[in-house]
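From: lab user (bench 3)
To: helpdesk
Subject: output format question, protein + octanoyl-coenzyme A

Hello, I'm new to running complex predictions and I'm not sure whether the block I got back is the full result or only part of it. Here's what I submitted:
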Amino acid sequence: MTIDLEKRSGCALLTLNRPEALNALSFDILREIGDAFDEVAGWKDVRAFLITGAGEKAFCAGADIKELRNRTLTEQKRGSEFGQSVFGKLDRLPIASIALVNGYAFGGGAELALASTFRLAGADAVFGLPEIKLGLIPGYGGTQRLPRLIGEGRALEIIMTGRSVKAEEAERIGLVNTIADGDLIEAGLAFAGRFTRYSLPALEFARRAVQRSGDGPLHEGLQLEADLSTLAYQTRDAEEGMAAFEEKRKPEFGDE
Ligand code: CO8
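Helpdesk reply: Thanks, we reran it on our side. This is the complete output you should expect:
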């Protein structure tokens, strides 16, 4: 196995564990990541999903370049679609995911972080989509998720120059939510603690509505918002939340 999957303080924690290759995404590790996402989807007792990379140097240095060579076009296309489908599983999880980016997040590694709900950077984090330097372009979602996050102009500049983005700039342009001091896993658990006390259905509906905001026409997004806010309204948690407000007490959400 080249990943570790465990539970930590009410969260799922996945560690890419191939530090000798800077956690590069071989086909095997991608498959393991996909299986881990499926497994976590069935865990009822976790409220957020943290993803990190083993070793001091890298979150993940991208697709395994040594494996990329000598592929047929069909293999290449399937490879790209496979990586996209693995990272796409994060969107469909009932819980939010947080990429804890230590060191390099390049290529497919940056794309894994982009597919996560939130990104926390260590002070040493460096992002990049350097595929252009290999004569390639991003293939695991980077051309679609980066512009949605930071805008087309900045995304084009980063993708077409292949330049690196350090933690401070990443925070300034909205590529990461925040820079964390100290132990990144502790920081990730603390970050998760800022929302995991709320009702899981409400958190999921909010995430789904916001994630669709860049996808289509405004009127469709507004319809989805109306539908999901009505679903949230029908939960016991909404009843409890509004009752607790009136009774001037803290709500006790039961995730239903
Ligand atoms: N793939 C395979 N091995 C890697 C990768 C990688 N992406 N990155 C690092 N490694 C290996 C190195 O080969 C080296 O192994 P060895 O010791 O056996 O030579 C080991 O990890 C340590 O790396 P370095 O010695 O290079 O470490 P440095 O600190 O000198 O440099 C860097 C760190 C700057 C991160 C450097 O390793 C680097 O530039 N790596 C490549 C980054 C990159 O270009 N990533 C993008 C890859 S392409 C991609 O992600 C998407 C392609 C399109 C998808 C298509 C789908 C099929």
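A quick orientation on your result: The chain has two domains: 3-193, 200-246. Let us know if anything else is unclear.
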